[in-house]
Write a structure and sequence with these properties.
Shape: globular
Helix content: 25-40%
Distance between the termini: 40 Å
């Protein structure tokens, strides 16, 4: 990288190459905008990236991927890739998740909706009507989402077009915006144990119980797993980001790696460019931060936010009173021999031994075995086991190197002991092992305390308080899980579509017609 780019002016500069940032970038580039992506690491994707070790291709984050169906409007990853001229080959997963819960409760979320519902009713026969009624509401929300093009709800012109196209869907969706899942579930279900299952259904992707999980998000997740289904990208989750980068470059955009943005430059109240850690400056008409809201605007424990503290908008200070960073994760990336994983195993598992431990430090264990779907990710005769459990940065700070190493060893052994509840012979068949802590996630992903994303610090009215892409600083936008509609690959892809549409409107490059 040289300084001769200092006077270049881009239509859009995207800070970070997470999926939200890349969708924003590719959407704008496909419309003819001049786009630059600046990535601090050596590969794209952020927590949706991948890395290789000794013949294994590991996913950095979760491998339970929504948004790769072929019908409707909710398949945002399919659409994002297609719009940039790319496509991912995917492998359908017959089961979203196998739950291993207290009191020997085992629930299999089959891709076929009726199989899932019938299995759940078998465990709670006295709640048959309540189960069907609750998940029927989820379908109502999903059908509203799936019948309209999902773009920026900040653009009045777009909203008018969508309302004209699908008025009943718009009204139906608006009805559920203020509600959380717990509000709806308790209307139909009384069994406390079943309500706890709805809690863990939410927690497995939102890291929140039902009372703090927006109904709009649940309607998408609880239904799309049976509609478009869970589909794993062949070659690993990191392929998604790689394909989007290829689409970006094929449409004239550019990405620079090892480019750590230190400051967003602001003149008056307008963002004008960015300054890298090496002093290089890039000027842009629009600046998009794919960093977390805390890394962008600051907050407790953030030493050097991208925006100078004296320019932090009041709205961002208010946002921090409503939302807090979710925990990070302790992660295990294991290579194991085939004989430790039975041939009829499911790809994804969740283990919770005590209901009261759900929101506690390292209370829930998630297991992903992507080689069940794509054996090419591991050397012949081996599987990948990616296990992770929520863990807060506070648990890892202030440790000496020896104490840190000891805690890594002890906590990883504790996580392996949970994996053994499902796969008893796993420990004696490990051929490769890597341990990641919240410090690892902060270092490699550049996320405040390695957080998974924002969670409400109190019960809020559904998605209504969630911020959109625009900020109080002109020409500065945010994208990713700190924006409406929140966490998950399909959700951050939505924020990318929305951000690109909003900027495209200001640049005058959006097509008049709605997406088909």
């Amino acid at each position: 990288m040289t300084g001769n780019n200092q006077h270049n002016s881009w239509d859009a500069i995207v800070i970070g190459s997470g999926i939200g940032g890349l969708v924003t970038a590719t959407q704008l580039a496909a419309k003819g905008a001049k786009v630059l992506v600046l990535e601090r690491y050596t590969i794209p994707g952020g927590s949706s990236g991948g890395f290789k070790r000794e013949g294994y291709t590991f996913d950095v984050g979760a491998s339970m991927i929504f948004g790769f169906g072929e019908k409707g409007y909710t398949n945002l990853l399919t659409r994002a890739l297609s719009d940039s001229g790319e496509k991912c080959e995917t492998i359908p997963d017959p089961v979203q998740l196998a739950y291993h819960l207290p009191d020997e409760l085992e629930v299999i979320v089959n891709r076929e909706y009726e199989k899932f519902i019938s299995g759940l009713i078998k465990s709670f026969p006295h709640e048959a009507n309540g189960i069907r009624s609750f998940y029927k509401v989820c379908w109502q929300v999903f059908n509203c989402l799936d019948s309209m093009p999902l773009l920026s709800i900040e653009d009045p012109t777009y909203l008018a077009k969508v309302f004209f196209k699908a008025p009943f869907a718009c009204l139906g969706l608006a009805r559920w915006l203020p509600f959380n899942v717990g509000d709806v579930a308790r209307k139909y279900i009384k069994d406390k144990r079943l309500l706890r299952f709805i809690d863990i259904e939410c927690f497995c992707w939102s890291v929140m119980p039902a009372e703090r999980t927006p109904m709009i998000n649940a309607g998408m997740v609880f239904s799309d797993r049976h509609a478009g289904g869970i589909n794993y990208p062949k070659g690993g989750v990191g392929v998604i980001a790689e394909k989007l980068v290829k689409g970006l470059e094929n449409n004239g955009g550019k990405i620079i790696y090892k480019a750590r943005v230190k400051k967003i430059l602001v003149s008056g109240n307008t963002a004008t460019g960015v300054k890298l850690a090496n002093g290089e400056i890039f000027n842009g008409k629009n600046i998009i931060s794919n960093a977390t809201r805390w890394d962008t605007f600051g907050g407790e424990g953030v030493k050097e936010p991208l925006i100078d503290k004296n320019k932090t908008p009041v709205s961002e200070t208010k946002w921090r009173t409503r939302y807090q960073p979710s925990p990070s994760f302790l992660s295990l990336h294991l290579g194991v021999t085939n004989d430790s994983i039975p041939k009829d195993s499911h790809c994804h598992h969740l283990i919770l031994n005590k209901w009261e431990e759900m929101e506690m430090e390292q209370g829930v264990a998630f297991i992903s075995i992507p080689t069940i779907l794509d054996p090419s990710l591991a050397p012949k005769g081996n599987h990948i086991v990616h296990a992770f459990t929520p863990s807060s940065m506070e648990e890892w700070q202030g440790l000496s190197p020896s104490a840190y190493a000891k805690k890594k060893k002890e906590d990883s052994e504790s996580l392996i002991s949970k994996i053994k509840q499902v796969f008893p012979s796993i420990e004696s068949n490990i051929s490769h092992k890597e341990v990641g802590t919240p410090k690892s996630h902060r270092r490699f992903l550049g996320r405040h305390n390695g957080t998974y994303g924002p969670i409400p610090s109190l019960a809020l009215p559904g998605l209504l308080p969630m911020p959109f892409n625009t900020t109080a600083i002109k020409r500065l936008y945010c994208v990713g899980d700190s924006c409406f509609p929140g966490q998950g690959l399909n959700a951050v892809a939505f924020s990318g579509f929305a951000c690109a549409h909003k900027i495209g409107a200001s640049l005058g490059i959006n097509p008049w017609s709605l997406p088909t």
